[in-house]
Amino acid sequence: MRDLTISLLNINQAQLTINVLDELAGLADEDWAPQLILVDNGSRDDQVRQLLDWLATNSHRFAEILFVAASCNLGCGGGRNVALKLATGDRILILDNDLILPDDPSWLDTLWRIMDDDPRLGIVGPMLVFADHPDIVQVAGIALTDRGRVGYLDRAQSVNSIPPNSIEVIATLAACWLLRKEAQQEVGLFSDEFYPVQYEDIDMCVRLGLAGWKILCDRRVKLKHIENVTTRNLEDYAFDRLTVRQGLRFREKWADILPDIATITEDDIYWGPIPRIGD
User: Fold this and answer.
1) SS3 of residue 127 by DSSP
2) d(CA 83, CA 268)
3) pLDDT tens-digit series, residues 209-234
4) In the prediction, which pLDDT does 192 show?
5) C-beta separation of 272 from 155 below 8 A
6) CA 225 to chain centre
7) For residues 68 and 88, what is the distance between their CA atoms, to the nearest angstrom?
């Protein structure tokens, strides 16, 4: 039996979270017996009750379930840090609740096997595609400019144009990570500098890279991702301003090493309409 912990966050999106849980419960039919750690980041009582009802009905589908209901929003990194501290698996599957997971769990087996092949692989993630445009790439790994601007590799490209292989990247989006616990323990937890969200995953990837761990995007695995469901609905934080603030914080923190790890220029970055105008 493979030694896996699954980490999932929720904040006032119980039905989306349950959709992901429904697919994860199917892993039991494929000889997986994972530990599940579900952290609720201060949701309304009715949302918490929905999750508790689902967990009570499906507890037999997992080797262990830990449900942590925080009284306030711990942030994305803070909520995931709870799971990292409690995780018993040698590998941790970190998921956002706005993923649309396929019925067939072979995607996870593919990620698992590629991590088997390289003991210095710290993170492997899939290529994410748009939930409403599954033929278009959302992100196939993350790259940085020498000034710390973030570029989503292959964004807005046709899925059919992307070679089905694995590529080494600076970072990959934590919407879906298979994370080696040994690597995480070497570099520590998600930094609370990036509370409540944005750049905490890229920051951890930079720390892993500096410690000699590899990060891969496996473009054979394609998962649908709705994108920014939680972050665009944070009551106390304007999304665009938060993104700018965290970006400035990230660039200041890593200014000395950004020129050494940059792999793209400003011209390589695309944040335009999806699909591209004229496509």
Assistant:
1) strand
2) 35
3) 999 999 999 999 999 999 877 666 56
4) 97
5) no
6) 10
7) 16
- The residue that leads in pLDDT, 28 or 204, is 204
Give dist(CA 273, CA 279) in Å, integer: 10
Rounded Cα distance, 162 and 21, in Å: 29
Cα-Cα-Cα-Cα torsion 178, 181, 183, 185, nearest 10 degrees, comes to: 140
> How far is residue 194's CA from residue 199's CA, in Å, rounded to a whole number?
6
d(CA 165, CA 163): 6
Q: Token pair 């942030």 is at which residue?
A: 75
Of the candidates 244, 84, 217, the residue with the CA atom closest to the CA atom of residue 152: 217
227: left (phi over 0), alpha (psi -120 to 50) or beta: left
Nearby residues of 57 by Cβ (< 8 Å), 6 or more positions away: none
Is 218:114 a contact under the CB 8 Å cutoff? yes
Tokens of residue 19, six digits: 């959709």
Nearest-angstrom CA–CA distance, 2 and 176: 18
